[in-house]
Amino acid sequence: xxxxxxxxxxxxxxxxxxxxxxxxxxxxxxxxxxxxxxxxxxxxxxxxxxxxxxxxxxxxxxxxxxxxxxxxxxxxxxxxxxxxxxxxxxxxxxxxxxxxxxxxxxx
Length: 107
Known about the structure:
Helices cover about 80% and strands about 0% of the residues. With about 110 residues, the protein is mostly helical.
């Protein structure tokens, strides 16, 4: 596996730990309520929604170009934010390493 994939795995595991702690402390709805608590946290929540939307568009285009299944990652992004793009990138890196080394792929 490429170094980038290992970094993505480490980030996903670390973020998973933080998410688990947050879910235990305040619950899923509590995370959303905190995002709506004041103008500062609302700005962070809207920022996250914009970035996740852009990531979903990119995943959709990349999956079509490379003939990958993307819908599980799109649903995961809607439900769990950054986990969708992180896991898509890990899967993408892993599948590129597993692809035959015959003809080069362009595009």
